[in-house]
Amino acid sequence: QPKHIRYLYLWKKYLKYLKPFNNARREMSRWHLLTDGRQNEDFFWSDRAIRYHPGFRVAPVEVGLRFAFEAAPRLCFALNDYQLPFGCHAWARYDRAFWEPYLLKESC
Question: What is the pTM of this model?
Answer without folding.
Answer: 0.60
